[in-house]
Amino acid sequence: MTVIVRDLRPDVPADAEGFSTTRRLALPYMLSTPESVVHTLTHAHPDAHFGQLVAEEDGEIIGTAQVSVAHDSPEPGQGSANIYVRPGHRGRGAGSLLLRTAEERLGRLGVTKLFTWVLDEPGHRAFAERRGFRAGRSAWFLRLDLAAGTLPPRQEPAPGVELRTASDFADDPRPMFELDAETSSDEPSDIDVEFTDYEAWVEEHWKHPLLNRDLTTVAVVDGRPAAFSVAYTDGDSRYGTAMTGTARAFRGRGLAKLAKNDSLHRARAAGYTEAFTGNDTGNEPMIAINKWFGYDVCAKEVRYVRELG
């Protein structure tokens, strides 16, 4: 059986379905749908040179790679390639071929430092280390049973604080962009991020098919969005927190916890039964908040890096 690697064809429904299914099987803690796969590919910023590769065996997609240049980082020459192969199809060369194809593509684009997320399992880590990658920071995947679990009771906002949803900003999402840009720049990461292109953010993030604006809660102080908890949903039973953060001027007031609690209650009332989120293992404040909600760790990823030469 021969494995080939090629670009995903966004106009072929079977490609998006195969890509999404492979991601869900290999990484069940992150939401993915065929619509989100196509949107991510077709709405990425041109400077990211974003690509989605598939490994195909006898006409079946068994592996995927998401490849991009870190165009929104102030440090040039950085890129990423995240590779996943379906359980039951590993050890047949799909991962190696995906990685080699990604490295060649990024090398031609001037990338000299390549980052990749690797599941914290012996086989996955050995794969990366045999190819010269070295381990760096790590992150947890967490899961909360919304159907059977008990959420903390809803809290009344403090005077001057109002809870709204992202839908309330549909006519002018720029305040949401400004909040996202500030909080994202403070996220623990190997690659610094600077959101400066509002129009690109609208196309890539605000119009993302997984974004659920009705379940995204925003804490507003004196008319200004001060904190938010961004909700993704897959249209079925799964809910994910894509981002929870507070603007610097409003930190230490419990606004992120307030917003996330409201969003979780909304999600449960809407019929979602599983909630997922992720945390850098060094982000102690957010880890404490998620433990308070009742999240349990379900997996761990390690960020690996190597120089391309």
Q: Show unreliable segments.
A: none
Largest sheet: 12 strands, mixed
In percent, how helical is the residue content? 25-40%
Note the gap between the termini.
32 Å
Task: Report the β-strand fraction as a percent range.
Answer: 25-35%
- The number of domains is 2
State mean pLDDT (0 to 100 scale). 94
Radius of gyration over C-alpha positions, nearest whole angstrom: 20 Å
- Envelope shape: globular
Helix and strand pattern: EHHEEEHEHEEHHEEEHEHE
Description:
There is one protein chain. This protein has helices at residues 13-26, 34-42, 94-108, 122-130, 174-185, 198-206, 255-269, 284-293; strands at 3-7, 51-57, 60-69, 78-85, 113-119, 134-145, 161-165, 217-221, 224-233, 238-246, 274-280, 296-307. It is an alpha+beta fold. Helix 1 crosses helix 2 (34-42). Helices cover 30% and strands 31% of the residues. The radius of gyration is 20 Å and the shape is globular. A hairpin with a 2-residue loop joins strand 8 and strand 9. It folds into 2 domains: 3-111, Aminopeptidase (3-Layer(aba) Sandwich); 144-300, Aminopeptidase. It is built from 8 helices and 12 strands. It has a 12-stranded mixed sheet, with helices on both faces.
